[in-house]
Here is the input.
Amino acid sequence: MQSLYKKPKTLIDTPTHFCPGCGHGIVLRLIAEIIDAWNIRGRTIGLAPVGCAVLAYNYLDIDMCEAAHGRPPAVATGIKRVHPDHMVFAYQGDGDLAAIGTAEIIHAANRGENITFIFVNNAVYGMTNGQMAPTTLLGQKTITTPSGREPLNYGHPIRICELLAVLDGSSYLERVSISSPENIRKTKKALEKGFKTQREKKGFSLIEILSPCPIYWRMDANESMRYIDEEMTRTFPLGVVKDWEHKN
Amino acid sequence: MTEKIILAGFGGQGMMLLGKLLAQTAMIEGKYVTFFPSYGTEVRGGTAVYHLIISNEEIFSPLIEIADTLIIMNQPSYQKFKGMLKPEGLLIVNSSMVKVDSSVKSKVYKVPATELASKLGNVLVSNIIILGAYLAIRKLFSADHIMKQLREMLKNKKRELFTTNKQALESGIKVIKSLK
Amino acid sequence: MKQLLTGNEAAAEAAIQAGCRYYYGYPITPQNELINYMAIRMPQVGGTFIQAESEIAAINMVYGSAAAGGRAMTSSSSPGISLKQEAISYLAGSELPCVIVNIQRGGPGLGDISASQADYFQAVKGGGHGDYHLIVLAPSSVQEMADLVYDAFDLADKHRNPVMILGDAQIGQLMEPMEFSKKPREVFPLKDWALTGAEGRKRNVIKSFYPIKGQLEEFNAHLQKKYRTIREHEVRYEAINIHGADIVLVAYGTSARICKEVVKKSHQSEFKVGLIRPITLWPFPEQVIKTMSERVQCILTVEMSAGQMVEDVRLAVEGKCPVHFYGRTGGGVPTSLEIMRKIAEVVPSNLIDKVNRILPLVEVK
Here is the structure.
């Protein structure tokens, strides 16, 4: 009998701690699928952030490293310098990458570190009960923006891909989402491109993935997918922002 | 024998090299030596002061409280450090830039190092002229030994630079000899 | 062959000799000679040098290279070391071996750039969050700086623990003749826990997060057991003339050099001064201090701080004899005369005559 769908070998068979409707499980599965397909389990080292994905090392059957909040780009740099031929990726959320770790991601990009960054943007701090993220949309209600984010007090949502694009050291930047099967396929392609960028030693790659957080968006799963398509993408347009293979 | 020397001048007047030459030579001759820089916050122009101790015995504190010798390259350094010289100590000044007042009771040697260096075509060797003077007075090391260290330190630089430095050292020695 | 090097340069070269191939730093006075040396030297030996965007990034790069199995080092001075504390706690919690050099300067805050020993508490009591210890080594000469940095990498690997070298602006910038007497390290201990890619084996995970109730307590018990082993086996100190001494000084690093002068001068008199110089500040040489305290009339701790190590001396002495303190702060370095005067102030009255006879010996002439 032909099997059409099965659990990737690299994905550990265990219940996750993610909330119902969360996007992290989808992204982790995509990473596991690519590691299986490329047969690179033995030469891949991943980094988990602090935030909702803190336990990512419990789900991926590869060598993995924890990093302090926001520091994965620096820790990944240290790992990559020891194992320059291994596939090194850092998995980071919006608080980790775009707030507390802004300096580290900018300078990793600026050095052109040959590392792949997987940036899961759900516009909210999930693990600490739903506070504002640097990527929270204007008007979006969170625990710390109870009347909605307004720019005078809380600033604007940060567009990381566009921010990093101006640095000469960044090579591949793309924003994708996991709001539909089609978008999930595109996300997988973007992740593959990120790994390809690294394998071909083209330098810094980052894939920003718009991902749902139905719990702290106070929506059901379907609504949250629609929210990505109809609201999030207006602030965070999907598409390739920078690509070493197709320079403008 | 313990010789405690304070070297001071503008940053850029080469006190570091002067001290290092003496320290290196002392080390090779088997003496105990400590050489401690004390930078100001300015990189150029501020006062740079170095504490150099050469001894036949183990050196404990590398900081000098009372100096046997003061080598002073500019007026601000003179004002700042003249009080650290012991009464019967030795004061060598770059007289092109330092005016010595009557308050100093120790033996003073005035060497117009900046002028002499300009005559040699390189104002930067004023430190080596002063070094020559010091060697001629204290006779801790022979000029040959110092030249050997200097050659070593300048081995990757242009040959003319060594020649000028050699002339500078000789010129400093001559200034002292002509006094005697 | 003897060389004339600064303590900072000696630390850098000793790290290279010990097989350190990953150095990450950020400029700060008075440790700049170290990062400058590494910038030239690391590429020569095929190693990695990165001038990081911050001290925080530098220590996290060390974390990464240590996790990946490399010998890694960073260096800084007091304010920069404060910035590194978060990652130092993570390094301890993830049991990663590495070497951190602190060339202390005056504080608090931006302080100044001259020598200080005011980071003692930060170095030996934690500094970051959680129950942990660094192994802390305190050199008092350029030669010892080189020797201890070399040993630090072995100690770090042996115990899977970060090691801190606690120097100061004076030791860092001082030039003294020294030599590299140890062979360059070429063989390294096996690190089967390191992240090397899980080819043909179970995956390795480097982490300090134990969210399941009970696990963290178990892990802490493991750490404490390790710390006990280190306490039992790694204590280092130098003791000079402590037998028959009328008073014993306790001092480390730069302060200890000056105390040695007092000890030496006291030889010429009938008043005997001894010295215990802790080389490991953690583990602290408490046993030798305790034993000695049962035989002397009093102890004087000398530091370039407002009184930090003196607390550990008092804990070791357990009240068996008076423990006095002399300290300078804010860039002040004690002189031998100041120390002698303090001795005269604190000795029991039956010894004052003896002390007064040696005071002239330490007058600077």
In short: Chain A has a mean pLDDT of 97. Chain A touches chain C through 35 residues (CB under 8 Å). DSSP finds nine helices and nine strands in chain A.
